[in-house]
Amino acid sequence: MEIYHLHYPSRATIDDKGPYSLAIGFFDGLHKGHQTVINEAKSKAEQLGIRSAVMTFDPHPSYLFGKGKEKVGYITNYPEKSRLLEEMGIDALFIVTFDRNLASLLPEQFVEIFIKQLGVKHVTAGFDFTFGSKGAGTMAQMAALSNGEYGTTVIEKVTDSNEKISSTRIRNLLSEGEVEKTAFLLGRPFRTIGTVIDGEKRGRLLGFPTANISIDEETILPANGVYAVLFSVDGKSYKGVCNVGVKPTFHDPGKMKPSVEVHVLDFNSDLYGKEVTVDWIARIRAEQKFNSVDELIEQIKKDKETARQLLADC
């Protein structure tokens, strides 16, 4: 899959490698609703005998228009999004810088520069996709602006339990620790990617060594708690117990940022500096403060057994 970074106005076009059947949207999480849009664009590419492509935007609009509010954390960072799209068989990925220059474009300008000039012959998007200044452009307008140069397909709302599958819904589920429901809406376990760094090494002293994982601050994490996870490093997968939180038994919660630590079951190798992935399978319990270290150790033993049971079929 070829990846192109487009920056308006300095680099709004690429070498002519079209024609394309294009799926367009922010696509954070690449959940089942997004997959429906992208697979339709891929099918249309096969029907027309042209290349499939996805256009997405970076950063999230909240980084530009948040006005001091908390910025939206990513469900899927761009390396992981790229990997998933390549697995789906997409030929080209366009990552468009979302800034004030882009946000000021009129809908007809956006279509001319990012659709027609890229050689797009078919556009597929969700029913609620908007584009252009203040989101004035709709898919109906996308079709009206084509002048016969490209076709359009609109994907209607994809639901589960009569509720739209959306990135916002998934973020809300993660904020509640609902990783199993999140996995159902994504069509795969929620995944976090990071690098193993030096930690407090307290887990080793307790008899449960952990990999302390540095996570991109722009990436969302599940609610504080203890989880059964799959931990992957160097192409191999292991079962593990993950604590995300502030370790209130040892720290003042108000003075700590949440950390991610994984005790990898049946594993004893040096992980420092390695890139690892954590697939969140099930929540075991909420994070809690214990009255003593011995009480904490007994609970960790129980958490390990619970994790083994939850991961038995993984």
Can you give me a brief rundown of this structure?
This protein is α/β, with parallel strands linked by helices.
Radius of gyration: 22 Å
Total number of helices: 10
CATH class of the largest domain: Alpha Beta
What is the global morphology?
Answer: elongated
Q: Any guess at the CATH architecture of the largest domain?
A: 3-Layer(aba) Sandwich
What's the average pLDDT? 89
Strand order of the largest sheet: 1-4-3-2-5-6
Q: Tell me what portion of residues adopts beta-strand conformation.
A: 25-35%
**Structural class, judged by helices and strands?**
alpha/beta
How many domain units? 2
Stretches where pLDDT falls below 50 for ≥5 residues?
none
Order of helices and strands: EEHEHHEHHEHEEEHHEHEEEEEH
What level of helicity do the residues show?
25-40%
The separation of the N and C termini measures 30 Å
The major sheet is characterized as: 6 strands, parallel
The CATH fourth-level homologous superfamily of the largest domain: HUPs
The number of E-state strands comes to 14
Oligomer: single chain
In CATH terms, what is the fold-level topology of the largest domain? Rossmann fold
